[in-house]
């Protein structure tokens, strides 16, 4: 073998070795990436009654309540998370907060609309169930589940 062939052969080996090392480091690095949807902490919150809403928020909810809506509003260091389920044929509905927690990339919220209980006396009038939650504004986006 002459010197030229040895250089080509060792260059090829070096390239192959470099590729293998890059794949090993790339695969190893994947395990170190933190899952941004992993729950960091439950958040303390208050469910508000309509008389406790900021006036601007009342206007927005009135405009949107006939349809399904999800919105946020910030005011004076507080975050208001609003979830509406649109027009329902009767009264007697309630909304449950299943989860509300902080992750590395945001605030996750999951709510459920609960229908009238069997045998419960309900209003026959159309209703617009929604919930407004107040919590400290921690500067993160809200992700609705």
Can you put this structure into words, describing what you see?
There is one protein chain. It is built from two helices and eight strands. With 145 residues, it is of the alpha+beta class. It has a four-stranded mixed β-sheet with strand order 1-5-6-8, with no helix packed on it. It is globular and about 75 Å long. The protein starts with a helix and ends with a strand.
In short:
The protein is an alpha+beta fold and 145 residues long. It is 26% helix and 32% strand.
The H-and-E topology, N to C, reads as: HEEHEEEEEE
Largest sheet: 4 strands, mixed
Task: Return residue spans where pLDDT drops below 50 for at least 5 consecutive residues.
Answer: 27-33
Which class of secondary structure composition applies to the elements?
alpha+beta
Would you count the extended β strands for me? Answer: 8
Q: How far apart are the termini?
A: 66 Å
| Rg (CA only) | 27 Å
User: In what order do the strands lie side by side in the largest sheet?
Assistant: 1-5-6-8
Mean pLDDT: 85
- Please tally the helical runs, counting DSSP H or I stretches of 4 or more residues: 2
Overall 3D form? globular
* Percent of residues in helices: 25-40%
Record keyword descriptors for this entry:
single chain, 145 residues, alpha+beta, 4-stranded antiparallel β-sheet, 2 helices, 32% strand, globular
